[in-house]
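Hi R.,

As promised on Friday, here is the backbone we talked about, encoded as structure tokens. Could you run it through your design pipeline when you get a chance and send me back a sequence?
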């Protein structure tokens, strides 16, 4: 449904403003019906949404599909290691929660040596509050660790010892050094170029959080920062799946290759044939 997303994100008027001052948002005809109802369906699951979080879009389900395919491959591999899934910019928690919910279906395939850990980060405390409420709604609050962080800057996490099977426990920056797990990053960072924001549909620019839309000058700034953080932390994901703007295919591939020269980079189209998903696979990963 990229078409819907494109129309929701591209049409419109002046810079985002809560322009209907004096009138409660919900009385505004442009107020998104998903916020009005208070929930949305994503990956066949119900998610609470408020104007503190982006309304999950159907094309983002493709990221969940890709992540689950990869997890399925790795958990059933004889060489399987623990898997760490990072959802960067979790918003309502839709990606992390959909993955967590569907992992239980893989338990029959899973090698006994393999555990899947999920961390979801967001810079917005308000978004994290909604994400945690959604995790609770689905009985997954103890399965996902939510961290307020500028991308991965506050990532202080290590996998629990195998035999202990304890809850994730912050122990320092070990995640940077560890090669004892397969790292999968799934992310839908803001990617609208700043100059295009005034032209988004009113229902988007007036009501969805600017921090969830604004990708900086060319729209790719947050991805660049994420790549730089990964390199600085010595993290070389086995797989990175990122949702990108339909104009960013070439830019995304070139930039990812610059930061990760040995990775296999691909840009996939969504159902509306728009370039939408960047995948970066670490070819040197021995378990691949
Ligand atoms: C496009 S929304 C995606 C939300 C949700 N993951 C989804 O797919 O529907 C981007 C999210 O990234 C968060 N975000 C923006 N800048 C960030 C940063 N520097 N570090 C972490 N999260 C950030 C926003 O608060 C927002 O929740």
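Update: got your reply. Pasting your designed sequence below so it's all in one thread:
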């Amino acid at each position: 449904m990229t078409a819907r997303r494109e129309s929701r994100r591209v049409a419109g008027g002046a810079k985002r403003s809560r322009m209907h001052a004096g009138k409660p948002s919900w009385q505004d005809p442009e107020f998104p019906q998903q916020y009005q109802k208070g929930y949305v369906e994503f990956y066949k699951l119900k998610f609470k949404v408020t104007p503190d979080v982006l309304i999950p879009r159907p094309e983002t389900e493709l990221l969940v599909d890709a992540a689950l395919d990869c997890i399925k491959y790795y958990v059933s591999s004889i060489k399987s290691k623990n898997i760490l899934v990072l959802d960067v910019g979790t918003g309502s928690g839709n990606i992390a929660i959909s993955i967590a919910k569907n992992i239980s279906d893989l338990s029959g395939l899973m090698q006994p040596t393999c555990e899947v850990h999920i961390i979801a980060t967001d810079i917005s405390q308000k978004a994290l509050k909604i994400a945690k409420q959604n995790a609770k709604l689905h009985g997954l609050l103890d399965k996902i660790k939510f961290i307020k962080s500028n991308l991965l800057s506050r990532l202080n996490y290590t996998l629990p010892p195998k035999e202990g099977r304890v809850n994730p426990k912050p122990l320092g920056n070990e995640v940077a050094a560890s090669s004892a797990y397969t790292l999968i990053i799934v992310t839908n960072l803001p990617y609208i170029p700043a100059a295009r924001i005034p032209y988004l549909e009113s229902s988007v620019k007036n009501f969805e959080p600017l921090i969830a839309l604004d990708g900086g000058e060319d729209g790719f700034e947050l991805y660049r920062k994420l790549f730089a953080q990964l390199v600085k932390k010595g993290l070389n994901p086995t797989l990175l799946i990122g949702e990108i703007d339909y104009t960013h295919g070439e830019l995304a591939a070139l930039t990812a290759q610059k930061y990760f020269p040995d990775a296999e980079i691909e840009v996939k189209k969504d159902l509306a044939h728009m370039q939408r998903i960047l995948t970066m696979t670490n070819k040197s990963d021995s378990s691949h």
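One thing I noticed while checking it: The chain has one domain: 2-282.

Thanks again,
M.
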